Amino acid sequence: MKVFKNPNGKWCYSFICNGRRVRRVVGLARIDAEASMAREFEQVKREKFGLAGDRKEVRFDVFADEFIELYAKPNKRSWSRDETSLVHLKAFFKDRLLSEISPDQVADYMAQRKKAVRLVKKDPVSISPSTCNRELTLLKTLLAKAVEWQRIESNPAAKVKKFREPRSRERILTPEEMRRLVDVAAPHLKPILIVALNTAMRRSEILSLKWTDLNFPERFISIENSKSGDPRKVPMNDLVVVTLKDLARTSDYVFPNSETDSSIKSVKTAFRTSCRNAKIKGFRFHDLRHTAASAMVAGGTDLVTVSRILGHSSILMTMRYAHPTDQNKRRAVDVLAENFVENGKKPAIEPETSITYKALKPSSRSN
């Protein structure tokens, strides 16, 4: 039995029991690999003596903590959000064994969560369907791991359906609104808005930028830790280059917090103030990304290129930015008409007169 690191820096374990070699890649912590190896070695030994079906019963809340430590933290960037969701799941399933959880209990949890309310500025607000669905997704993943780790035989949440979610609203700024928002922004927020509106980068990607991520000679920004997990390069236009070069380099971060010497973590207050001063209502920071993407599509950029810039895993995610405006549709059919233009000359359009192209003129030959 041994625990070791692979070339990618992840901890692994390997052992041979009952003539069977077991080798697993676990994560970034040695203690996780050791704990996982001990559990699997014990399970293989039990299989050898025909005891594999004799599972040790475990409570939901105990396994939830194990799930966070052994799976969520090593593998998920959003593990802290999982901990928040588990607060509600633990409260509902707190005294139940994993083996006691049934599909109807999972459905009951969803129904009760949908009826629940939370206080926002002392006002009761219903829990959104998306929040309920996010918690159901976590529960399904957690119970799937319980099956994989042989704590239960099947996943009782597997066939429970999610709630229908209303289509998310999108607020796209006009060019005049973009300029107005940037003009009234606080000095530390203004360059952040310019980068957002000219790169379509996510807020977290912008705020965590380091100077080493910027390649001014080749004019691109390197994003190593994206939401999709895949690194990408985002091109910089002239405005972004000039804006970033004008910033003082007082830290490793492009947008540093002067008090902590780390990056700025939030611009929520400054952004709300800017929107209020610019008289822009119902607008979120993430809508800057929608605005930039929609502007690229409206300007004629193909969806594949826009998808690569945004870092989408599927072009289907990018298609929602392709809003077919009357101007875009008119431009599209104008391109078709160019097939019938001779020597680059277009006929003059006169009122109440149809357009006649040479290729469409009737033949002068008599019938």
Structure overview:
With 367 residues, the chain is of the alpha+beta class. The chain folds into three domains: 1-54; 60-166, Tyrosine recombinase, N-terminal domain (DNA polymerase, domain 1), CATH 1.10.150.130; 175-321, Intergrase catalytic core (hpI Integrase, Chain A). The protein is 44% helix and 11% strand. It is built from 14 helices and ten strands. The protein has helices at residues 30-48, 60-75, 79-93, 103-115, 129-148, 175-184, 190-199, 203-207, 238-245, 268-277, 286-298, 303-310, 315-318, 326-337, and strands at 2-5, 11-17, 20-27, 117-120, 123-126, 214-215, 220-223, 232-235, 256-257, 262-263. It has a three-stranded antiparallel beta sheet with strand order 1-2-3, covered by helices on one side. A hairpin with a 5-residue loop joins strand 1 and strand 2. The chain starts with a strand and ends in a 30-residue tail after the last helix. The model is unreliable at 353-367 (pLDDT under 50).
Task: Summarize the topology.
Blueprint: E1 2-5, E2 11-17, E3 20-27, H1 30-48, H2 60-75, H3 79-93, H4 103-115, E4 117-120, E5 123-126, H5 129-148, H6 175-184, H7 190-199, H8 203-207, E6 214-215, E7 220-223, E8 232-235, H9 238-245, E9 256-257, E10 262-263, H10 268-277, H11 286-298, H12 303-310, H13 315-318, H14 326-337
Antiparallel strand pairs: 1-2, 2-3, 4-5, 6-7, 7-8, 9-10
